[in-house]
Amino acid sequence: MLFNSLDFAIFLPLVFILYWFVFKHSLRLQNALIVVASYVFYGWWDWRFLSLILFSTLVDFLVGKQLEKEAKDNKRRLWLWLSVVVNLGFLGFFKYFNFFLENFQAAFSFFGFEIGGRALSIVLPVGISFYTFQTLSYTIDVYKRKLQPTGDFIAFSAFVSFFPQLVAGPIERATHLLPQFYKHRQFNYALAVNGCRQILWGFFKKLVIADNCAEFANQIFANSEGASGSTLFLGAVFFTFQIYGDFSGYSDIAIGTSRLFGFDLMKNFAFPYFSRDIAEFWRRWHISLSTWFRDYLYIPLGGSRGSKWHQFRNVIIIFLVSGFWHGANWTFILWGALNALYFLPLFLLKKNRSNLVVVAEGKALPSFKELFQIGITFALTVLAWVSFRAEDISHAWQVYSGIFDFSLFSVPNVINSSMMMSLRLITFFMIIEWAGRRWSFAIEYLFESYPRWIRWSSYAFILFLIGMFMQTNETAFIYFQF
């Protein structure tokens, strides 16, 4: 079920009414309702894959109970590995089987050996990368004794399948979200209003910014051969705002919807395109995934401890794995490698934690130095997104070759009135994002100091823009494919 669908517009109010008016006196029934609603939400896409979520839930619930009973470290490790193998086994089969088969065959063909084997017609379950990492966080934290295993299967099922963030995050830690299912929840009007604001801004990002930018990004990338460097770079800029509006828009809708039901989800984006270096960008982009890799992969590998070589190796691994997590294509690995290349000089010079506070703190505008840093970081990010968007490595090479040409300094020959309108909308969007960069989301407190009629007029204006510029067809969120 898509957030931007008529189905969800009916589904959400119905679940909200049942949750707060029918089952409000029973925590267990509220949790059970969340499980049922989440399974309906996910099964709306393809009910057959509900068995995967259920099986993963059962495995990690039972493994958690066994970890609680077992005192011997070697046996506890066996239970942990059972969870890791089952979860990553499902992920590996559905997401990477054909990729490894094709590359294995290609490698042997290079040396003159032909190996049989056919690619399978595998449908990638929506959100499998997200809920797999979420359940793994539970098992790993129980194994490390950071979390007491739960005996409440309904609460645990609700944690695994919580519908607002089930298919595209944020990837929640069990230590943060699971305990919220144990506590009695009361309707909080201020929290719900805040959630509605975030939902509104999320829909603006998705329906106005992302979907309109997608039209032009797709057009330019589909016709990249022979296009001027300036046209190709413009296409990459459109994709840059498409993926941000799409993914952070989903996160905003998910977090806002969770607030309607009394839950707090972690912040997933912190205005990343105002970053002054790549290290800051990665502290602000897809925070739930980058911190997951930091805590469950980077630190266990040794983190920033040890020799320069070990530190270098750990950084390379974390970026390559992050790229591969996104999809079974060498383009994603190239994207991860490019970001590692950007990051390593900062890391080796120990400047990767230079920009920890909000840019232009307490000021209306950035300094010239900050503006230059933001511009350089944004340009590098745009170039990296080319490999993320390209169909394959040869397509990425074609686009990069076209961009790094003297025609980069020409005027793009594809600009029309619709494209100009999208550029104006992007400008408006970034002005609002800049004004609200100190908060959880751009319009959280933006109009709070103004009279009520101005606040409501501002929200109405955003609704008007959504109505005016949204696409007529429902479009899936980009990260559903990951």
For the structure shown, list the relevant keywords.
482 residues, mainly alpha, 2 domains, 17 helices, 0% strand
SSE arrangement:
Blueprint: H1 6-22, H2 27-46, H3 50-69, H4 73-110, H5 128-143, H6 153-161, H7 174-177, H8 189-222, H9 229-260, H10 278-284, H11 287-301, H12 308-326, H13 330-348, H14 368-389, H15 393-403, H16 417-435, H17 452-469
What does this protein look like?
With 482 residues, the chain is mainly α. The chain is 66% helix and 0% strand. The protein has helices spanning 6-22, 27-46, 50-69, 73-110, 128-143, 153-161, 174-177, 189-222, 229-260, 278-284, 287-301, 308-326, 330-348, 368-389, 393-403, 417-435, 452-469. Helix 1 (6-22) packs antiparallel against helix 2, helix 8 packs antiparallel against helix 16 and helix 11 packs antiparallel against helix 12 (308-326). The mean pLDDT is 92.
Task: Report a brief summary of the structure.
The protein is mainly α and 482 residues long. The protein has 17 helices and no strands.
Main sheet characteristics: none
How many β-strand runs? 0
Whole-number average pLDDT?
A: 92
Principal-axis shape equals globular
What's the structural domain tally? 2
Distance between the termini: 16 Å
Uncertain ranges: none
Strand content: under 5%
Query: Would you list the SSEs in sequence order as H and E?
Result: HHHHHHHHHHHHHHHHH
The count of helical stretches stands at: 17
